[in-house]
Amino acid sequence: MSAQVTRCIRILALLSGGRKLSTQDIITSVADADTPRVSQRQIQRDLRSIEQAGVPLVCERDGREQRWFIPSRFRSLQPLTVSRNDVLALHLLKGALGAYTSTRIEKDVGILRRKLERLVPGSVFLSEESALDVSPGRYATAVDDHVMEQILFAITDPHWDRVTYRSIHGMECKTFVVSFCRMINHAGRLYVAAWHPKYEQYITLAADRIESVERADDVTDPLHVFDERAYRSGRFGVYDGAVATVRLRIDASASDFFASRQWHPSQQITRRRDGSLNLTLKVPLSAELVSWIVSWADVLEILAPKQLTSICRDKVKRLMSTADL
To answer: Residue 87: CA atoms inside 13 Å, Cβ hemisphere, count?
Structure first.
């Protein structure tokens, strides 16, 4: 690619952002290690070339300077440049969009997916069908369209909502006031983190079990400001409960792997001389924590609390008892 073509692309990228730039501004912005010196005459030629290519540049006098810009109605015609660093982020975004299948925004997500496909074609993820073979699977129930719309609206424009929520067995519904904070994609299901003003704590609601959402204009309490760290600190995954100090011993064979990951915001890691490590977490003794610990039973030992040891032992014992049937 010639130096002029490279400069023209950079100039287009600059002006497409809506800024009004002088010739000197452009000279400073397009210079790099390969072309540290760019003359005013070169930039003027570049601007003429861009105009001749059909891009509607406008020159506006600002005191003694002339400033160049692209009118807002034409900026969408300019190419969107994608750097190497952008490519991975865009692929990750494409992969995350699958969580919104069977929701109110599925159509909008499909439009976005097609736009992303033009920028970064192909996929770096397994297909959904293959992934389901080795994952916990997706929940078959869909989120009500109106509920999804109200949740999104409440998160982007914070206010109090009155929510009717169905129990896990579908036998009863409860109605209470919350402030929706964030949506969460976890193990193939959409959840919503919300603040419960009555109990002054965060709760996590499965989006597909929300029966209705109505704006609670009669609630005059000050709006809650979401604190993500505080939300995560009382959970392991999306499940909450009474928080306990959990101490685990990780074998040397798995110590590097465990040390390289953040399992929870509260984690503390201490390496031992024999290569093993101690992992301390302040987490609820939830079913998800128990399942996680049992899955690592070959490289992990529970040091505390004793209650967690008993819970995990009972879970494994129950599993093994069924093998004799």
So the answer is: 7
Using CA atoms, how far apart are residues 60 and 68, in angstroms rounded to an integer?
6
Q: What pLDDT sits at residue 13?
A: 80
The phi and psi torsions of 85 (rounded to 5 degrees) equal -70, -30
With cut-offs at 50, 70 and 90, classify the pLDDT of residue 16. Answer: confident
User: Do 64 and 53 meet the contact criterion of CB atoms below 8 Å apart?
Assistant: no
How deeply is 224 buried, as exposed, middle or buried, from its count of CB atoms within 10 A (0-12, 13-18, 19+)? middle
* Angle value at C-alpha 300, between 298 and 303, nearest 5 degrees: 140
Are 239 and 286 within 8 A, CB to CB? yes
- Tell me how many degrees the CA angle 161-165-171 measures, rounded to the nearest 5: 160
Instruction: Please report how many Cα atoms fall inside a 13 Å half-sphere around the Cα of residue 255, on the Cβ side.
Output: 15
Residue type, 306: K
Report pLDDT digits (tens) over 144-180: 888 888 888 888 888 999 999 998 776 789 999 999 9
Mean pLDDT of the chain: 83
Q: 316: how many CB neighbours lie within 10 A of its CB?
A: 12
**Closest C-alpha among 14, 25, 83 to residue 55:** 14
pTM: 0.60
Domains of the chain as residue ranges with CATH: 3-77 (1.10.10.10), 84-132 (no CATH), 145-226 (2.30.30), 240-323 (3.30.70)
68 pLDDT more than 80 = yes
Cα four-point dihedral sign 139, 243, 152, 122: negative
Question: 201 to each of 145, 157, 196, 206, 233, how far by Cα in Å?
Answer: 27, 20, 6, 17, 12
117-143 pLDDT per residue, tens: 777 777 655 554 444 444 555 555 678
